[in-house]
Design goal:
Elements lengths: L3 H13 L2 H8 L3 H15 L4 E4 L2 E4 L1 H25 L7 E7 L1 H18 L3 E7 L5 H6 L5 E7 L10 E15 L12 E4 L5 H12 L5 E5 L3 H9 L5 E4 L11 E16 L6 H19 L1
Parallel strand pairs: 3-4, 3-5, 7-8
Antiparallel strand pairs: 1-2, 5-10, 6-9, 6-10
Helix pairs in contact: 1-3, 1-4, 2-3, 5-9
Length: 292
């Protein structure tokens, strides 16, 4: 019989592409990952990996097994959710991942509601860039997370996860005076750290307007971004949640593009009482915010 723990390693290899990355994500050594994958090949009775020098890729049999692994893990998660539903009260840890601008505006009031209604839940929050959240969910470092995508930066569907829409935000051009995006092709820009969704969104939105931005400053906190704009250090793209404390000197021009936030969790866990309670609390925050 195939070992579920080894299947998890194979699935992560399909996502992360190198044994070193799999080892880092799961706190294993690379040699331990290699040994476990070799053992899985022996259990399967067919080659699952093709090794060329230091590179490893999945064979067709390996990809087929990864597809089946997704179903297996979802069934196991659903079984755990069904068992948890028999408990009278919600207890134990609930690990939540959130990106910075959603922490204060969305998650904080949701945590108040969860703590009040379910005092025995052990709420554990990790702030991280949403590009890292899917991997943290797959490896069970997180149980539920807020993830996002921009019109110009669609996110690939992860078959290991279920998602549901939570919030859509306007994207603003932040500058010292109102104006069209195309008018700033010679301006200096402030953008997120390279590799983040915010940085990619800025580059692609400007390219769609016909130019590549000249990025002078990198900052991931939108409060810092807006202060840099107010100081005349450049212009920037800022989503609605990040623009709540805009300095008086900064003009915000709405653009025809959006940032969309989704709630994400592992397939099969959506009906788990703790996950369900968190989903309800998050949606309630958005409803109150919009009605207010």
């Amino acid at each position: 019989m195939l070992d579920v723990r080894k299947l998890r390693l194979l699935r992560e290899l399909a996502h992360r592409e190198t044994i070193a990355a799999v080892a880092e994500s799961l706190n294993y050594t690379a040699s331990a990952v290699s040994q476990q994958l070799s053992a899985l090949e022996r259990e399967a009775g067919v080659p699952l990996l093709e090794r060329t020098g230091r590179r490893v890729r999945l064979t067709s049999a390996g990809r087929t097994l990864v597809d089946h692994a997704g179903t297996i893990f979802a069934v196991l998660e659903q079984a755990g959710a069904d068992l948890a539903a028999d408990h009278a009260a919600l207890t134990g840890p609930l690990r939540i991942g959130v990106f910075p601008t959603a922490n204060r505006a969305i998650l904080a009031p949701a945590l108040v509601a969860l703590s009040t209604e379910h005092p025995r839940l052990e709420l554990m929050v990790t702030e991280l860039d949403p590009i890292l959240a899917p991997g943290a969910l797959r490896t069970e470092a997180l149980d539920i997370a807020l993830v996002q995508e921009y019109d110009y930066v669609p996110v690939d569907v992860d078959p290991a996860l279920d998602t549901e829409p939570l919030l859509a935000e306007i994207i603003y051009l932040a500058a010292l005076s109102p104006g069209a995006l195309a008018s700033h092709q010679r301006s200096q820009w402030v953008a997120g750290t390279p590799g983040t969704l915010c940085h990619t969104m800025t580059v692609r939105a400007c390219q769609a307007a016909g130019f590549t931005p000249r990025i002078r400053h990198h900052a991931d906190d939108f409060g810092t971004v807006l202060e840099l704009v107010a100081a005349g250090q450049g212009v920037a793209l800022v989503p609605e949640l990040g623009a709540r404390a805009t300095p008086p000197a900064v003009a915000l021009t709405p653009l025809p593009t959006q940032r969309r936030t989704h709630i994400a969790y592992r397939r099969g866990t959506g009906t788990h009482p703790a996950i369900s309670a968190a989903r309800t609390a998050l949606h309630s925050v958005i409803r109150r915010s919009r009605s207010g």
